[in-house]
Specification:
Layout (H helix, E strand, L loop, with lengths): L1 H17 L5 E3 L5 H6 L4 E11 L9 E4 L5 E5 L3 E12 L3 H16 L11 H6 L4 E4 L9 H8 L7 E9 L3 E3 L61
């Protein structure tokens, strides 16, 4: 999922006009050594913090269907994560860097969600919104100064960017549907005489003579005669 978010951001910034201006979009760590090797105008989108959003965790499982409408798998609900980036611009002069950073800021603040046409892989398959929040409002992540200190570089103007994206759940393949009827095989049992012949059940029509227990004729007992009113019982 992380690399798919990276690709969506790269496509978004590229479409904003950076590619036409000859600006490269990279996701490298802006260390001192990296800055020394840089030669072209560059926008660096550095991922430095990943945290789950527990308020959006779901339960249960959803069904996955094939082209024929049959259930082929069951998938646990996606889990949402916040990806925090440090966006910086690199050029020969500070004025050029500020111009690049302003162009990036204008693109990101006007984008609430990554357009579906920019999504790839599992993000495209899930069809869920990928939120984009630029400016660092309410971000619970390490401060930019701490990030620069950890990278061993000099502090530069930077833009905080937070992306909330779903991580696809785990799919479990279900058993194939039943396509044949039920078949019952009987096993012969030893008869009462012990001769090994299969035991058979006999059916006798109602009213015909037969052995006891196999449908012999049975007569209903006659109901007692009803006494008239005022008649004494003998």
């Amino acid at each position: 999922m992380i690399h798919e978010v990276d690709e969506g951001l790269r496509r978004l910034l590229t479409e904003s006009g950076l590619e036409a201006s000859g600006v490269e979009v990279v996701f490298d760590a802006p260390t001192r050594d990296w800055a020394a090797r840089r030669s072209a105008p560059t926008v660096c989108v550095f991922l430095y913090d990943i945290r789950e959003d527990p308020t959006r965790r779901g339960s249960g499982a959803g069904e996955v269907y094939d082209a024929d409408g049959l259930v082929v798998a069951r998938r646990t609900p996606p889990r949402w994560f916040e990806l925090t980036y440090l966006v910086t611009a690199w050029a020969g002069r500070p004025q050029d860097e500020h111009r690049l950073l302003s162009q990036v800021l204008s693109c990101l603040v006007n984008t609430d969600t990554l357009p579906p046409r920019l999504l790839t892989g599992t993000l495209a398959d899930l069809g869920l919104l990928v939120d984009v929040d630029a400016g660092g409002t309410g971000m619970d992540a390490p401060a930019a100064s701490d990030v620069w200190s950890a990278l061993g570089g000099e502090l530069k103007p930077s833009l905080g960017l937070r992306v909330k994206a779903p991580l696809a759940g785990i799919s479990k393949v279900t058993a194939p549907p039943v396509t044949q009827g039920l078949v019952v095989n009987s096993v012969p049992q030893t008869g009462p005489d012990g001769d090994g012949s299969p035991r058979r059940l006999r059916y006798v029509e109602l009213g015909s003579p037969g052995p006891e227990g196999f449908g012999g004729s049975r007569e209903r007992p006659k109901a007692p005669a009803r006494r008239r009113r005022g008649e004494r019982q003998p």
